[in-house]
Each structure stands twice: as C-alpha cells, then as structure tokens.
Amino acid sequence: PVIKVDDLNQRLRLGSRSKSPRWAIAFKFEAEQAITKILHIGIQVGKTGKLTPVADLTPVRLAGTTVKRATLHNADEIARKDIRVGDTVVIQKAGEIIPQVVRVETEARDGGEVPFVFPTHCPSCGAPVIRVPGEVDYRCSNPPSACTTQLKTRIRNFAHRDAMDIDGLGIKLIDQLVDRQLVRSLADLYRLDETTLAELERMGEKSARNLLTSLEQSKHRSLDRFLTGMTIRHVGTRMSEVLAERFASLEKLRSAKLEDLESIPEIGPVVAASVHEFLHDPDSIRLLDDLLAVGVRPKAIEPSKSSDSSLPFSGKTFVLTGTLPKRSRTEAEAIIKRLGGKTSGSVSKVTAYVLAGEDAGGKLEKARRLGVTIIDEPEFERMAGLIPES
C-alpha cells in the first residue's frame, strides 16, 4: 500500500527527492519465505564472463510460483552464509521476483552436506578463472569468441530490442548458430545467407528472409543502441546515450582518451576506465573493425536541444540539491533540458550552476569549495525567462 498526502499545495511544499516524492510513502508486506533443500550448485556464465553460482532446489511454492532455483550471487556470499550442497535453507524473493537464499538451517544438518568449491576453470570453455583484485566476482579468462556461453549471451544482448533490435533472432536460433559454428562473433551474424538459415530447425525460407531483413536494418541503428549491444562492463542504456551524445560517431569515440571520458559529468572513473579498456582491447578492436567491414554503420543520435546555442541553458550543466519552494526536482530538470541544459547528480569543475533549495547538503558545500555559481529558485526562474527581469 502507498500512503499519499491528499493536498496538492502540501505536495508542492514537500517537494521530491531525486527518485521519489516526499509526499508519498510505500509500506511493503513482509516477504513470504519458504523452506527447501539445496540439491546441487551449478555455475552460470554471463555475457561479461562473470561466473554466478546458482542453487538447484527441491521445488517449493513461494509467492505464487514454484521455485526450483535460486541465485547464490558469488563465492563470498556462499562463504559468508556457509551454504553447502544438501543444506536445508530459507528462501524468499528479492523484490518479489528473484529467489534468493536468506539463511541456512544449520540445526537441520546431518553431516552429509558438502561444501561448495568454486571452479578454477570456466565450465563452458575450460579457460582458467580469474578474479580481479578488489572485485567479488570470478570471470572466465577467455574472450567471448572463445567461450560458447559468453558468445550466446552476448548475441542475445546484441539482438535485444533496446540494442540492435534484431527481430527473429531468438534464444533457440542463437544456440543453433553458435553450436554449429555458423556464428563465431557478432559480425558473423551479417554473413548469414538465406539458404543456411532456412536449413535450421524451426526456420524456413520466409523466416530466413525476415531475419536477414531485420539484420540489414540493424546495420544503421543509432550509436547509443549499438553501444548498448556491445556489452561494455558498467555501460547500460543510459551510459550509452551519454557516450553517443558526447562523441556523436563511433570513430570519435574510438579515438577518445581516458581523460576525455573522465571529463564527462555523468561518467565516473570506473565507467571511464571500463570504456577505455574495451576500446583498446585487441579482441574488441578486431570485433569493431569486423562489424564495420560487414557494413554496420551506427548513426549519430538525433541532436538534442542542447546543441542549439540560442537556448539560454545551452551547454550548461546544473546540479540540483535541497527542496525547491515552488516545484519538484523533476519539474526543474525538465525545464533545464527543454532550454538546452543538462543535469548531473554530482558537483564537479564542469558544473555551471548549483540550484539549491532548503536543506541542501554536501553538494552545496562542494560547490562552494570549487567556486561553482550557486543560484536559488527565483534566480533560476529569471534565467529561464519564467519571470521578467527586475
């Protein structure tokens, strides 16, 4: 249930946080739990080579569905909870969706439980498993082209509707293409022909033609969708949009230096390093060159109003902090973007203005230290042309 303030004026006075209104609060029912047994622990290999342990369970009803599997997250989580094969465990659904192990019922152990040993080699391709210092995850050391499971999951991500939107390229077909070694990289998708596709299971001439048409159309998707499909660590749809807006073309992005990436307000050092590493990795370089060779030409995204120099906030980055007297942060951000500006969640040297309301905190202090111009809502309204200059 959600409880809301039933007065519009009070709502305006209360304002909003960056992601939720202050005038509403949600109360969640206590998560339903169930007791079951771990029959086996296996390993899933993800699109970035990450190895995720997953428990096979004695089937049990939980929150409206029958649960047979639960993620164990990583090796550290297994060690922290002392999870063993054969354990009786309490499970619940995280966010009412993803089954997870809450705790082990240690008093139910009979001595037959077996500790899980994390594999030293990838269960898909047999390559040694690596763990980067400072990270909790183990990863396959092979590139996607040499690891079947990685390649399959990357193709699924590449074909996703938020990425290259390749209609007709489903899981079953991807499995066939990779297992038969018809596709060994993303670029090989564009080398498929109608005869080869039509001979596959669940395919015919019409399905083959439709897929080839979709593949041809995907060659000219926008740069942000192309980057989403590249499976760059820490880069999702929003970061792809940011990169595409900043660099406009794949050629410009590929020539970007690390400091160019770090200078983008919405991109932190971890994301910048990840993008830079991807662009300079020999396997990634070969893949990008190969995609260009088969005719993939990502388009620049439609220019936003921020490129219109006549707009009052063109090229200016704003950071909002505190509660504004008249409008929510969402409303203020919409005005900034409409007038050519950008918003960021953190103050930096490239911040043009900090729009501060009541109860502003650390962002305001940092703005003062960096000498960033601080404005209140009346000044913001004058700059935006919402009220006449006095």
Description:
The two termini are 47 Å apart. The protein is globular and about 70 Å long. A hairpin with a 7-residue loop joins strand 10 (129-130) and strand 11. Strands 3, 4, 5, 7, 8, 10 and 11 form a 7-stranded antiparallel sheet that branches. It is of the alpha+beta class. Helix content is 34%, strand content 20%. Helix 3 packs across helix 4 and helix 7 (223-229) crosses helix 8.
Contiguous helical run count: 15
Strand content: 15-25%
Structural class: alpha+beta
Biggest sheet: strands, sense, closure?
7 strands, antiparallel
Using the alpha-carbon principal axes, give the shape. globular
Radius of gyration: 26 Å
Number of strands: 15
Low-confidence stretches: none
Q: What's the order of the H and E elements?
A: EHEEEEHEEEEEEHHHHHHHHHHEHEEHEH
The rounded distance between the terminal residues' Cα atoms is 47 Å
Average pLDDT, all residues: 90
Fraction of residues in H or I helices: 25-40%
Please give the structural blueprint.
Elements: E1 2-4, H1 8-14, E2 24-26, E3 33-45, E4 50-62, E5 65-71, H2 75-81, E6 84-85, E7 88-94, E8 98-104, E9 114-115, E10 129-130, E11 138-140, H3 148-159, H4 171-179, H5 194-198, H6 205-218, H7 223-229, H8 237-247, H9 250-254, H10 258-262, H11 269-280, H12 282-293, E12 317-321, H13 329-338, E13 342-344, E14 353-356, H14 362-370, E15 373-375, H15 377-384
Parallel strand pairs: 12-13, 12-14, 14-15
Antiparallel strand pairs: 1-2, 3-4, 3-7, 4-5, 4-11, 6-9, 7-8, 10-11
